[in-house]
Write a sequence for this structure.
């Protein structure tokens, strides 16, 4: 029996390894889509990109992508929204302001600001655009009228993000960081610990923010952008896009198809398999297990835990167990429909070999076991009802 069991175990472990690592998968952009510069999702179904002359978008999580807009030769570098029914986009070599409907419809307004590389809404209707030579423009009527603000720099600004309705950060070339506390009316320079070109900025909370840039640069603030410190990315790639789903869990994308993630607020970064060598320009997530990365030559990648043969969720419950395979120590990120549940691990005979109480309905639990190598089954149980279940491999 032992001689038969070991080869079967090896095959099963190999198959599960493939599934556990298949986290980024390619999606098919509309025919003719060229370089894609930005991506922003409204929810797990509605997602849009900005590209050369078009705005590919999807209403089924990227299962199919369509584009009903063509503005030849216009570099649409940015897409953003705070509305469930529209995305907005601008470019750096045109005066078009574009409103892309979700799911359908598109409108173009001419005579709007040009030279714009990034757009971000601080509130519904109020947005800031930044771009070439430090250009900074604002609107508070969803783009009908724009005001050009006094520039805090003449360096190119590549990205802008608001921590709240008033406090925003824009970043750009040669380590440029500028900050506003009045919704974009006035901007002042902030001391920067980097001389790299800063390409992307994001605030997952009002106080905590992150910046990525060329040469593997990653910066972090814990005081709403007043000061910044350098994090170690471990690479020299240009990191064109960064996004955090909360204060600890984030992703960066860059040259040669690089994707790295962190689960500890940027203290450590792990390389993820992207399956591409194309340059990636932007990344956006709507939850810890649902996101997109986009880049050169129409590249669209979607992130999602591949649960084929791995996990089943019952009702409004979500769980991510990682790493899997594991040496016996792993983390469990969970969001459950009810609190006071129990995390259980059973062996192949059905015997419970580990259990841990989950007091809250959402959180991260660090699990440490002394289990032997093999395949085990986990489940979360509450009031005699299974909320989620799956498999985990122990391989030391």
């Amino acid at each position: 029996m032992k001689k038969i069991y070991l080869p079967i175990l090896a095959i099963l472990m190999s198959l599960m390894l493939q599934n556990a690592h298949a986290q980024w998968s390619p999606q098919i952009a509309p025919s003719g889509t060229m370089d894609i510069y930005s991506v922003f999702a409204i929810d797990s179904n509605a997602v849009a990109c900005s590209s050369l002359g078009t705005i590919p978008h999807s209403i089924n999580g990227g299962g199919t992508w369509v584009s009903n807009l063509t503005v030849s030769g216009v570099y649409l570098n940015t897409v953003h929204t705070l509305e469930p029914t529209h995305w907005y986009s601008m470019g750096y070599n045109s005066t078009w302001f574009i409103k892309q409907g979700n799911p359908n419809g598109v409108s173009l307004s001419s005579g709007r600001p040009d030279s714009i590389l990034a757009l971000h809404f601080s509130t519904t209707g109020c947005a800031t655009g930044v771009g070439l030579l430090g250009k900074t423009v604002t609107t508070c009527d969803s783009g009908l009228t724009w005001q050009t603000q006094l520039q805090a720099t003449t360096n190119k600004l590549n990205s802008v993000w608001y921590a709240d309705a008033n406090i925003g950060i824009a970043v750009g070339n040669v380590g440029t960081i500028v900050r506003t506390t009045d919704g974009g009316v006035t901007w002042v320079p902030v001391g920067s610990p980097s001389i790299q070109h800063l390409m992307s900025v994001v605030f997952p909370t009002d106080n905590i923010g992150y910046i990525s840039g060329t040469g593997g640069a990653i910066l972090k603030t814990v005081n709403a952008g007043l000061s910044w410190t350098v994090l170690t990315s471990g690479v020299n790639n240009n990191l064109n896009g960064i996004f955090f789903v909360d204060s600890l869990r984030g992703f960066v994308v860059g040259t040669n198809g690089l994707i790295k993630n962190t689960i500890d607020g940027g203290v450590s970064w792990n390389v993820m398999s992207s399956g591409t060598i194309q340059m990636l320009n932007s990344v956006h997530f709507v939850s810890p297990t649902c996101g997109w990365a986009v880049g050169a030559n129409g590249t669209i990648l979607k992130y999602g835990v591949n649960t084929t043969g791995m996990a089943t969720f019952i009702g409004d419950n979500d769980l991510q167990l990682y790493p899997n395979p594991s040496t016996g120590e792993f983390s469990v990120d969970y969001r459950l429909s009810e609190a006071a549940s129990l995390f259980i691990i059973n062996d192949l005979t059905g015997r419970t070999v580990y259990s841990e109480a989950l007091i809250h309905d959402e959180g991260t639990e660090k699990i440490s076991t002394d289990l032997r190598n093999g395949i085990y089954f986990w489940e979360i149980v509450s009031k005699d009802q299974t909320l989620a279940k799956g498999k985990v491999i122990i391989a030391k």
